[in-house]
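Table S2 (continued). Query chain:
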Amino acid sequence: MKIRTLIVDDMKLARTRLKLSLARDAEIEVIGECSNGRQAVAAIGQLDPELVFLDIQMPKMNGFEVVEAVGAEQMPVTVFATAFDEFALQAFEANALDYLLKPIDEERLAKTVERVKRRIRQTGPGRLDERLLQLLGSMQNKTEYLKRIPVKTAQHTVLVLTEDIDWIGSAGNYLELHAGQDVYLLRERLHQLEQKLDPEHFMRIHRSVIVNIDRIKTLHPMFNGDQVIVLQDGTKLNLSRTYNQKLLARISG
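Corresponding output:
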């Protein structure tokens, strides 16, 4: 019997890639895809999958909230897709939980699928145990997004409100926080700051740019599949086609 599998990720490209990778395994049958947490909750109830690949970081309802909505006792074997930092990954490892670090590595995926198969063969379609619930609870408490960012200058420290930020760009070893007419330099990596910002309001539109979605005024397509985003203050930013569908889904949702 094939393992009935559900894929949950808010990025279509990520779902497609994972589905293609899983199609190489004769024991895995993908029975559905979901682009958000609400769809996932409904699909788990209707399709009764034995295995779920669940993205943790999704807008409106994240992976933790899916588990809470479905109920731990009703969750099938779950493989989390995460972009969390090293500390959180160590927590997953220590608790013997299945996770995939995004972007997903094919070798890591294969090992995870084999581990899932062994678990299902040995114990049947498992449910989330108390240890997993404790971990989810502790990590959910960590997902309090930044409301202000302390930026050190030569004279003092400025507290920049995240709601005032229009966009963020990489500048060598620093990040430029653009807030109105002000630009602040922060020594941090873009992907690290991205995880601390509320995905309801901020998302990456290029490998070196994060934008405040609420500041977007218009989008203009280009010949190569990219787009130009124009902010309310007239600033123009390139939207890479890699992030195109995710942004369109976000602003239309």
